[in-house]
Amino acid sequence: MARFVAAESGVSLNVRTQSLGTAMFGQTGGFFICEATGVGKLAVSGFGSSLYWMLNPAKDIIIDNAHVVAWDSALHHEISVTTQQSSGFLGSW
Fold first, then answer.
1. More confident: 20 or 28
2. Using an 8 Å Cβ cutoff, are 16 and 78 in contact?
């Protein structure tokens, strides 16, 4: 899970809500996420190494969203329930 560390003065931070489906089934940590807008540097911390991916709009990619730190707001994404044993909300069902 990523945590906010610091930001330059040109960066604005807001808290926004996620959809009910994303919050319950996406294992994203809840109904609220931090949104950064503006111009400047933003520092976050996370566990393990970090990778930066330039995505190709013509290709689909599957990522475990429990390992995503940040994404562009223009990114089209869909949340789905995995077919394996889950430790999230549905894991006990």
1. 20
2. no
